[in-house]
Amino acid sequence: MNFVKRYLIPRLIQYLLVIFLGITAVFIIPRLLPNDPVNTMIGVMQARGQQLEPGAIDGMVTSLKEMYGLEGSWWEQYVAFWGRLFRGDFGVSFFQFPTTVNEMVGRAMPWTLGLLLTATVINWPLGNIVGGLAGYYSRKPWSRVVDTIAMIVRPQPYYIFAFALLLILGYAIPWFPVAGGTEIGRKIAFNWPTIKDILRHSFLPALSLVILGGAINFQTMKLIVQNVNAESFVQYAKLGGVTENRIVGRYVIRNALLPQITGLALSLGQIFSGALITEIVFSYPGLGGLLFNAIVNGDYNLIMGITVFSIVGIATAILILDLLYPLFDPRVRYT
Amino acid sequence: MSRKMSRRDFMKLLTAGAGGVVLASCTPSEPETITVVETKEVIKEVTATPPSVVQEELADVLGTFPRRETLITDILTGRVGSPDNFNEWVGWKNRDRGMQTLANEPLWSVDFATGEIVNGLADGDPKYNADFTTCEIPLRKGVAWDDGEPFSAADVVFTIETLMSNDQWSAHSFFVENVKSVTAKDDNTVVFELAQPNSRFHTRFLDRWGCTWIMPKHIFEKETDQINFKFNPFVGCGPYKLHSFDPQGFWTAWVKRDDWDKSPAGMMYGEPQPKYIVYQNFANEGAKILAQLTHQADYLNLSSDGLKAILAQSKTSRAYQPTFPWVVNNDPCITGITFNTARAPFDNVEVRWALLLAIDIVAYAATAVDGSGTLSPVHVPHLGAYPKDYIKPMQDWLKKFTIDVDGEAFAPYDPDAPKRIAEYAKGRGYVFPDTPEFTEQAFGLGWYKYAPEVAEKLLLKNGFSKDKDDKWLLPNGKPWKITFLCATDTTTHATRNAMGAVQEWRKFGIDAELFPSDAGANLNGVGDFDVSGNWPAQEPWGAGADLYRTLDWYNTTYIKPVGELTSGHPSRWCSDTLLEIIKELRETDPADTAAVIEVGTRGLQELVKEMPGIPTYGYTGFLAWDETYWTNWPGSENAYSQPYPHWGPFKYQTPKLKATGA
User: Fold this and answer.
1) What is residue B29's predicted lDDT score, i.e. its pLDDT?
2) Which of A86, A101, A135 is the endpoint of a domain?
3) How many domains, chain A?
4) Is the pTM of this model over 0.80?
5) Chain A residues close to B553, C-beta within 8 Å
6) Is the pLDDT of residue B540 over 60?
7) Radius of gyration of chain A (CA)
8) How far apart are the C-alpha atoms of A218 and A211, rounded to whole Å?
9) Which range of residues forms the domain containing residue A254?
10) pLDDT of residue B478
């Protein structure tokens, strides 16, 4: 009961408060931008050749405000927004009216989750295990070779690195496609040709994320392990005749892993924001491009829809991490 | 017999499995390729050169499509946000992904390359009564929707009545304000009774990168919620019909109709050549370039740098013009500078003229587009029929036109400006025909003199002064700072013009600076700017002689106070003289070409005198065609049609394309 009273309930309140404040900020911030969605929509329609007779524009402004739910004061809009949110309804996209935000997010989400979860699930353990071993056996030649590679790879700007991959493996050695999530004409179905096609198209985006993400995890973990390695308990273990495998696995890496677990939780939460640059370089579908276009077009509802997922995702990941932390670190107690 | 799998065995199996998946995914899904002898050339000169021989492997398929029968282009407006929704009468549905270009047929289309208005579903010009309160439109006989249902006047009547019935349709306001009734006189004639005299009512159906299209009555009438109806599959009267689309919005594929001869395009121009046409989105220009270099994209819209990269790398790609300036220079849009005349000192015509005369157009064009734009001294671009109808006939007037500078007349027009730009281009090492015809086509007929000393006199006369550092001060003694609103994308002409102007004005002693913003549409609309890269005048139709679209945009009735969204031109300028001209033009039959030109010329003269915005060069597009699979593109030496794959008349181009048989 102590855990529930003294930790769980305050933590849940904090969790809900973070979500409430985050969503409120998401409601307010787009309205402070100079990008009025109605004016932007009319400007874009004109720029895209839509014939808007000057006399008809006034009528269109009124209609668009009504359709977008932008009539009334901010407070009235805010109350209506929460009302819709509790029903799981983010409204319609302003720009793709009358397509709903739920439909657009739902369409992009599986691609983002598929790519980023896969990349994270591969690069996190890989980077940490190799980094941990390289930190412990830092004088071995293989450790220095891997460290040198990581030092070369990690400072590369992601865009340049990803585009270089595209050039090498999409153009110079054309093993992989240069754009898209599937080949042109592919009808998505749950069968091997479709799965193979999706894997082929997602390989380069995933590889770029795995290599750079892995390099980051590798270097961080290596440095932490080198520090832990110098701790007295490790020296005592060595003097006490504990086997090296046990020291590495149970003493060093387990201790060094704690900050990395926090990083993993944040990474998983941020997945809901998408990976904009990856999507741009590889013309890959996902939430990042959707969010970017929503911001450029002043599509408030779509911005709010995506960022609410992100806020809830990050807050939930941190909550779960907090609750699970004692499993990783026996020193943490909630009593 | 069972054996517990050891950890080592498990790791081996896992590694083998992962490797297998990777290798399988590396395998091209359609592995069959053939080696062919390809004959292609890079066009360096206007005259034809013998083809060189290039040997390379060409793919049989593009995705799941037979490559030799497929034409692939990019989507100008990007990834489609709601790919399964084709209901283009409400909201934005990326209609340039094939709806307006292949599968839809308007009543009329603008073809800016030929300067013609092409009859589509209409069978001729509209007929108005004397006071422009009725409009009768003849419709083409024998047209069928792509599902086989015949097209008739009932479809037109249904469309208009439907649009008027619900204010969520994009065109609702226009038709409610303008239409009293619409009736089908017979199956092939529709008659509009207008709510007010409107001699340009029919232009609502003139496809100029958009118009009101006709709905298939037999499909929409069955829907109770027509606004949310997705209209999937799309049904139109164009020569292509929907084949498939990517649920993520990256591509939309169209297939030639079996009954293409029941489409107006087929009736007029014959059988389209590509069996399939695919519109694909590339999220970055690098991917576009790689796609064309590997022959996976036939037709691309690029930036200036992207075009140069393709021409340098590809042996099979060509631009719109075979030599410098390479660009598409017949887009019906004039770029330049817009002054906010609701804000001092830009409300003063002499200040506006001073700022114009402080521009050296050669340096300006060099900065903006490396000299590749076609100049226009008036507020319509130098393309199609406009030089013949307006710019050439106005040469005498332009040469005689003067402004008063300290009691002396100064003639600002400079017919030699294009030659100076040609000299600049030669100095850059560009090779192009040295003929007057080419100079006019590529660089225009004239612009204005670079006269900073005259500009100085005009400013001094209006109370401006200079400080000890030779910087201009406003009449109130404060430093003159000009903020130039432009786009954040440096490839846009708004920004290119801004860069040219800011450079020239800084050279002249004004503290000018760029203000790049993604909120440009809004800031222009509400008048929150000094000077902007917004088009200095509304684009004309692009075909025909009528300038009503350009001139009416200045109408005072559309001007709103600063802070409110204006319905007219962002300069918020008009004059009594122009108002009279607009009224006169409104009462002129658009089919009376001579009368339209006479009134339109006076409108352009008034704009030159008042200069609410400075026209500089016509919009330049950067287009790359790959000639591996398709040829006979409508380049400048063979401009049988407008060149873009995102304009409506693209469908009229498809019968003239030739498969190479590669």
Assistant:
1) 38
2) A86
3) 2
4) yes
5) 54
6) yes
7) 25
8) 10
9) 109-328
10) 96
